[in-house]
Amino acid sequence: MGKYLSSAIFLTFLLMSQYAFAQDYIVGEEDIIKITVYDHPDLTTTARVSGDGMINFPLIGSVSVQGLTVDEISGKISRLLSDGYLVDPHVSVFIEEFKSKKTIIMGQVKNPGIYALSGHTTFLELLSKAGGLTKDAGEKAIVKRRSGPAEEDENIIVIDLRRLVEEGDTSLDIALMDNDNIYIVKAGVFYITGEVKKPDAYKYEEGTTVIKAVTMAGGFTDKASTSRAKIIRKVDGKEQIIEKVEMDEPILQDDIIVVPESFF
User: Fold this and answer.
1) pLDDT tens digit string along 209-254?
2) How far apart are CA 47 and CA 94, in angstroms?
3) Is the overall model pTM greater than 0.85, yes or no?
4) How far apart are CA 63 and CA 88, in angstroms?
5) Confidence band (pLDDT; 50, 70, 90) for 149?
6) Helix/strand/coil (H/E/C) assignment for every residue in the chain
7) 152 versus 168: which is more confidently predicted?
């Protein structure tokens, strides 16, 4: 019983949050709004916001809704109708379709592109709309957000995808804003060759050790010299060789792990 009650409370909170967001939402070009007037069904109107922020409404004609929230539009139409048309009109405004607020998601998602923000949209909701991550997705998402009118007025938000998606840290599931530009980075790789069962290139994850890399490669062969494994690593464009690495040695992106054959 307590479980169902908690779920009901959560759903009620979610609906209230969505309603509060909708009331504060600033309408824009191409948004479609529905306007109703209590006890006057003949005035019910569904209107698309034009490029110059105008809608048409019965009796009062063209109305500018540019830069107004849902509540402000409701109040404005109420005042206009009160001016010689209706006595104490009660006007309700709802967003039928969110069209004006958009974001771009690119990189390692299955369906990159431009998406409309349908009201309160979080990063995970957008990721779902974009078909989810590809198998080559890395551990970071980069969100570029305008903070002012100039091109250089830009904030960078980095989202740790492993914490968010795999560990369920919903504190990272940020609400998206109009014109956010999101890029899902491609995962780095490392290479393992020599006396392992499946030598190949593998997806790099932060914290990967030599033994984890060997495990990903199917383990050692019977001929492997486990004490003579080495790492070939590029540092500042120059190749370095780390000899006789320990199994718990962390590896880096683009490392080449070489497991030689035993002499015996």
Assistant:
1) 999 999 999 999 999 998 899 999 988 888 899 998 999 999 999 9
2) 11
3) no
4) 19
5) low
6) CHHHHHHHHHHHHHHHHHHHHHHHCECCCCCEEEEEECCCHHHCEEEECCCCCEEEECCCEEEECCCCEHHHHHHHHHHHHHCCCCCCCCEEEEEEECCCCEEEEEECECCCEEEECCCCCEHHHHHHHCCCECCCEEEEEEEEEECCCCCCCEEEEEEEHHHHHHCCCHHHCCECCCCCEEEEEECCEEEEEECECCCEEEECCCCCEHHHHHHHCCCECCCECHHHCEEEEEECCEEEEECCCCCCCECCCCCEEEECECCC
7) 168
- CA 163 from centroid of its chain's CA atoms: 14
**Across-strand partners of 34?**
46, 94
CA 241 to CA 100: how far, in whole Å? 55
Which residues, including other chains, have CB under 8 Å from residue 92's CB and lie 6 or more apart? 35, 36, 37, 38, 74
CA 57 from chain centre, in angstroms, equals 37
Would you say 103 and 180 are in contact if contact means Cβ atoms under 8 Å apart? yes
Q: How far is 141 from 185, CA to CA, in rounded Å?
A: 6
Q: Which two tokens stand for residue 36?
A: 């109703």
Which residue has tokens 């980075």? 185
Tell me the one-letter amino acid at 36: T
Distance CA 221, CA 237 (A): 32
Amino acid at position 232, single letter: I
